[in-house]
Specification:
mainly alpha; two-stranded antiparallel ribbon; elongated; 1908 residues; 64% helix
Amino acid sequence: MRDSEPTCVRSSGELWTILRSSLRQPSHIQTEPPHVQTELERHWERLRQGLNFYQAPSSSSAGKVLHSSSSSLSDSDQPMDVYALRVSKALGLEQQQSVHMLQCYLREDYRGIQGSLQTLLQDERESRVLLLNVCDYYHRERISLLRCVLLLLTYFHDDRHPHRTAFSDCIARLEKHLAVSYHSQLEKLIRAEAPTAETHGDFMTERQASRWFLQCLREQSLLLEILFLYYTHFEMSSSDLLSFTKMFQEVGFGLRQTNRHLVDGSMDSVLEHIGQLCALILVEGMDVDFLQQCVLEGNTERHHFSKDHEVMGKMDRLLLALGDVPHHGPVLLAWLLLRHTLQPDESGPVVRVMGNASLRLGVFGYLSAMLRSLSVSGANSTANAAKMCVYGLLSFAIASFEEETLGDQQDLLDAACQVLSAPGLPDQFWETRTGAAGLGTVLNGAVGMFPHNLGPLLQLLTALLSNQATAKRVYAFLDKMSSYTEVYKHMPNDVTSRDNETLWRRRTPRFLFPLGLGQTDLMSQGQTNLRMPQGVSGQVQVRPGDQAFVVHWNFSYSSWTLFTCEFEMLLRAEPSSTDEMFHSERVKAILDLVQKMILNADRTVADGLSPLILRVSTLLQRMMSFINPPLDAIASCVNCLAVSASGMPGIVWSGLDCAGFLPFASGPVVSERCVSAEGMKAGKYGDLLLLEMSRGEYPVTVAFLRLVHALVKSEPGSAAVHCRLIPSVLLVLNNMLPVYHRWRYSTLGDRERVGCLILELIHAVLSLTLELPPEDEAGAATLRSVCVHTLDNGQSGVAVVDIMAEGEDAIHAGQSEGSVQTPIQTVKLAISVTDNVMRLKPPPPPSDTMMMSPLQRALTQHRGCHGENPITVLARCVSVSTSKHDEPELPLLAVQLLTRLAAATPVSLHACLDSQAAAIRHAFLARLRSATEDLRLKVAILEFLSVAVETQPGLAELFVDLEVKGGDRERGSDRPIRKEAEEFILGESSCLRVVLDLIRCEAPPCPPPLRRAAMAFLLALWRDRSDSAISALRATDTFWDNLSTPLFATLPSTDAPEPCVLEICASVLKIIGLEVHYGSGGGSLDRSLKDVLRRFSGGRRYGHWSQCVKSLVLRSAVAQQQTEEEEGLTLRSLVSAWGFLLGVAAAHPDVMHLTDDSVRLTLFMDILDGTKAALTTAPLGLNGTSSNMALHSTLGSSSMALGSTLGSSSMALGSTLGSSSMALGSTLASSSMALGSTLGSSSMALGSTQGSSSMVLGSTLASSSMALASTLGSSSMAQGSTLCSTLGSSSMALASSMASLLLALLEQWRGVVAPAAPDVLCSLSLVAESVLQAEHPSTDGTKAKIFSALVAVLQTQWRGLHGGHISRLPRWLMLLLPRVCETVKCEAIALTDRTRRLQSDGSDMESDALPHNLQEACVPALHLLRELCSADEEEEEEDGEWLSVMRKQQLLPSLLCALELSLVSTRNVEFSEAALQLLLMLARSSQQGAAAVAGAAITQSICLPLLNVYDVCNATVAPRWTAVYQLCTCLMESLLRTLRYGFVKQALDFVGVHREGVLRCLSAVRTLPSLDTLDEADRTLAFLLQLCGFHEEWQFHLPGLLGDVQQSLCSLCQTCTYVLQSKTALRRYRRVRNGPPSPPQTTSEARGLHPFNIKDRAFRTRLATDSVSYRPLREPPEGPQGPSSGVPGPCLKEAAERGEVEQKLLKILSKTLSALQHFTPDCVRLLSDRCRPDPARFRSMFVPTFTASPLNPDVPPSFGTLVSTVSVALALLGDLEKKPAEPRSSFLLGGDLEKTAAELRSLLVLTTEQSVSLLISQALGCLRHPGGSSHRDPGGSSSSSPVDKRRLKQELTSEMTTLLSDLNRHFCRTAASHPPSPAGGAAVPSSEIVVQLVQSFIALLVQSQTDG
């Protein structure tokens, strides 16, 4: 399509949207004054011409279109131009304008698919439908143009309007042309002939002609409104008045239209409106207001009609012919007033005729009805102008004529009340009432009949109530009445008369109300009555009709007292009498006045009304008992209570309880039973509802709904009040909402009003804040939860969906009936209610995530009168142009609900949209592209797309609309054909094109909220790893430049930055971080992104953003509670994004150009300062300030001294802590996945997970239920910081985010932070102290992070101190020890209590029930306590301070109690691990520490409870409990090794209880090959090795177990030897390690926190018990290696894995042999003494044979097994000694080769010596035993033949000779180059000793054979 005329292609609807949006504050589109001024200038010609802008077709224009079509280069333009000619003929519109109109329609209102438009034009049926839609759009365009002019006329003089200047300038230019032009347009429309098929083609059917005429009438109506408003501001000339009169007379004031044959019932309201506007224009043209002003000034000649007698004569002749239509009445009345005033002598007959005609037409009743209909139609400007016009007419008429001559007084009163509802008129009336004529006369007349006739005065005063000032005037007016009117049929006896009976005087006093006997007693009880004293005189008038006496007593009284008496009269009325109805009518008028008084009055006036309000509920109860209840009066009572609920809720509730009006419940309400309304009673309202349904009128129902709504809002935080409203709300939900549309209604519009009030009530309930049930009903349901449950699971929710699904039809029906506001409001409420229910409904259980509630099913099923899906209806609400309904909130609410459904409903929205999906996509994108669309709607659409990317892949693919580069689209489809191609481009209908335009930097700038939503959508793509969309974006030119622009800009103000700007920057940081992470090192990054990163680093933006984040955090810390929640969320998002980017930069420093250590240290220190500021605040007092400063100076000097002492040793600590350090190093490496090189999944966003992803102690960060409130006592550190209890939740969340970031970067940049470790430790200590003092419930997570950071820095600092030969840590650091101990104790107690409660509830015993909510602060505190105790113990020569602190705090009993309960219940695995690690450290620290642990009954706490971990079958937590078991084993081993005989009994108890576990662990090496099995066996062997030192005690107490263990050890020796010599067996271990899928990870494992990761690396050496220590080999990186390695990468990795398994097996084998040596005599003694072994202590453990396959697992272990062990060890030693050119052993792949080789050589030599010694000892024992070999096979048989001894000697001689040869060959070859070296500090037997033992044994064997 071509844009030849830019002015024409802009639609009138766009201008109308801009002008209309300027009325809303704040506006959500571009409505700045310059922009509005520009738009008015652009459309000025259109505004000036009006409807004449749309011209008729012409041949020249058609020729231009055809010429343009033939010369067009695009094939798609030609069919469109041809179709535009068809549109031109159908609409009667000029051809070029038709082309532009079609362009605007396709851009703004077309719902179809752009790609199929050509196909649609070729289909006659579809093109006809399109033509109808274009016709409707054209009609809306014309209406929008007229509305713009009407809006300008409405507000061009309003000083409060923001664009008054622009409007005024535009009207000033239009003033000269507007009246004439629009007058001519009106005449043209009136005289226009209806189109026919001959003139407009076959499109113009009879139905289309009727629609054309309806449009013509609407345009006439708008033109008349424009002219009326114009003449309210500008004077109408006499000639114009005459012209309008002639024109209106010809058309019969709209009733005699040229095309009246087309009039049907749907046009009656429009025709009536036209007639009313015609009358108003003529009345306004006569300028009655100015005429009255001239009369008051006595100068009538100023009026412009006073000298134009010719026109007046013509007007007389025209108006005298009127009088047959009600519209003529106001015109005749106005003209007779003008004639009577200007020509009083000549106008007598004319005035009389016109006056009679106007009265005959019911002029005042007509005026009342006209004003009422104008107010209902919603045209406020026209209605207000009409009221002002009629106000002048009424005032002048009443002032000119006697009131009695103006016809029915009630009609006059109704008209006056309607007029006084105009804004400002009540105040004007009260200002000019005194002595004024006009409406003041009406008020005086009503006062003259008061209180005999209450209605007129109360009706008039009710209309005069508009604000507090008028309420005070009305109250004062009624409080001081001076006349009391009564009517008598006969003269009473207690009065005297004089002056011809025109003056009466009372002879006796009288009570005015017959309230019964005992008036004085009643008055004493507070029931006042009016008493007329003696001597009161009254003027008497005789009523003409019935000759009754009307007496006006001169008596002062208060009407409010009179109203109270009227109430009492109704309460005392005789049942079933006519008095009931009489008093009910009087009371209703009083209640209506009281209701409006309460709405407008202040507190002082409302207190004066309290006597009346107190009686309202009694009146309600009385009237409900009538046989024929007065529904209107009852409704007035209920309305009065409703408006009183906000100010006097207690009075209202007590009255309602007494009256029994509201529904009630017979028992407690349970959410599960609320759907059936079981136990609910409808109350007396239920009876009234049945009566209303029979009558078809529902005043009480409307009042009831308003009352319940008011009660809901009266006390929003009162749960007790809300519980009392549950029956009422359930009645509405179950008995009204599903069926109200089927009730019978006698008044049009009542159905819509009832439905709207029902939904307003439900919306108010759902909008309540979270309330708690009353204390005495803790299990009761709340009002909101009951409402949510009922809507989600009952028919009421389905009814809401039906309203929403039929919303468009209801709106169209409302348009046809003339009122569309109520249907639109109902649909909006239905959408909002559904959205709130979906938001508030509780999440389903995990097993029912795919189950849908009735509400969800209703949302996804086809409903409505057309059988459409509600989701499709919602989407179409967005696609429909808002200019149709003037309701921008409707599409906004629809998009918000779609967003909610996309995230919460397990249904594909794409499938629900069905065939309309592509068309709806086009509509959504059109809204995003529109320059005049509501900004909120654009943001909501982008948020909807962001959610769809994550939860609705089909819908996301639809909107992203990618095409394969070079691919074609399927014929007739909007989807591209996917080929075998990897490169994608953006389709024509891709939403990414719009998003790219939004982030582009060129002018005009994109509003920040919209740009924020666009960035969030892009971030969703990167989180979801939508590779196709991302690749298409990368291929876009300048994408990375446009995206990164916010990062290079300067924030507007760091003091108060705009949240949108911060969120934009946060999204950009995350996108860049994810892109670099996905690039895995930068090799696949785009060149433009690399340039951006280079500029970011070169421009010092790292430092800039670090300072920005720091300053923002500091500002938030200072503001604290003044920080808004939204601002806090934004700041946390920015901190999260900044931390994420730094984590990526730490993992890829070269790519991110962040390699400068000084820059990284600066960034880290900024984060530390921000964390410190967020968690500490300066004390407010002087003492606190000085002490805080002193402490800072002390800490600073300590840190400086510490740093200077450290020297270079502290600087060398950056890379690693060594293998002997605490497990934190490896855990930190794995736990910072969110920020390190292993960033994890693509959806990682630091904002949501950073708070827990950086936990470093193998524990899941959750929340603890116990806050620590203890103080540090006399410690000087107590003054270091102020408590954080004043921090809000937002500030604490920010502090938690900063702590997470600090913790993660601490591991990533440990080498950078090491030089500043003292300063870091100082700051962290202050932060820790502040956190420990905090009482905020959300500080537990922050405590965990700060504790973890302290542990990490302590390790770095402590190891660095000892490396630098510094003997002590700073004393102030140890002041944390008591506080940490107290924290651990309190958390352990809380954990115990919570675990017991869960255990009593019977929850799952196998699930770790408390990893996320109660172990959060406890586990890190345990690790911090361990580090502090470890440092203290290593510094002190004697007992450390920790021991005394623990004893004082009584920590160990509480800790062991919690540990025991955790083991029994198999819960709290992380706590169990941490507690056992602390106990293990204490046991290893010193003799006193071990004694303290043992003295705390450690065995009783863990021995028997540990049996429960065997039964854990959950695959997720079972490995972690296995680690707990291993820790317990290590703890027993350490205690036994330290305490020796003092712990033997407990150790034997432990091994006896866990006999099966010990044996199973040893046998699992063969049956369950895996690395975990080897680790468990290693730890078990360490314990058994210590216990074997006490084999005599073991033999005495547990002989059976000892034998089983010996047999298992022998089998284990055989298994290890077999695996070491078998490559196939070794491969099984590697396959088990790498092959099977791992079980589902828990939350902590997903973050890299496997339960035993704490110990796997750093604890392995500390848990080792033999004399040989080694460093586990690290996995070498894949890929090319150094020049010394000739092995490919994968092969090298496989060899390294095999080497790790071999090392573990060797260690197990060495420990096994060491344990077995305890059960056999010393071979050296046996060789030297040649004595016989003690038969009681000696037992043969190996079969004395040398079988063919000694390593076969199915063969019992034998001497051959030990020989094979020596052979395997020698073979491995041979591999170690190979030349460099030869292939090296797998042992030496990776790590420090020389150190590893030395350690392994020592271990292999030790294994050789142990095997040889054990073989010699066992052989000598068999040979020297008296009975020969004493070995017993499993069958129990024995062998003791001398022949066996000789054969055994021969075999031993042969094997040992061969073994000696092997030993000599190996040791002689390697002795010179590799002398033996000790490993682990213990002397290793040399090769000579081994050889000598073998030689001695051989010599002994030879000698024994010779002797034998």
